Amino acid sequence: MGEHSLYHYYTDLANYWLLYDQIKNKGGLYFGYGWGGQNESFIFHAKATESIIIDPDYHKAKVQMPIFGALSISSESRIQFISKLTGRPVTEEDVERMEEETFRAIIQFLEKKNLKRAILTKFGEML
Length: 127
What we know:
By secondary structure, the chain is mainly α. It has helices at 13-22, 38-46, 58-73, 78-86, 92-98, 103-111, and strands at residues 29-33, 50-54. It has six helices and two strands, in the order αβαβαααα.
């Protein structure tokens, strides 16, 4: 792969995983197009300090992106992000243990956790 391979948007899984391995812990700014899975995984895996995602879909830009953005900002890892998204709490030990696992293994792990029902205030604090 050439030097510029980090800037391509991959649509097939083989190239996706090659890029996924290349960006691990790179930090810095992540710029992506389209909200819906790939970019979110890349942001956490790269441990980006900042990210910009552009999506032309009005509903994603006005509804999903602000919600997922807030979850992303308040999560230090993809496990914490998925935990908050699904309402299943994890401990620091869970996060460390699951950090290198596949997405399928993480989902199976979280499915065993009890669903935490929470009411959020307008400031995002749990009651």
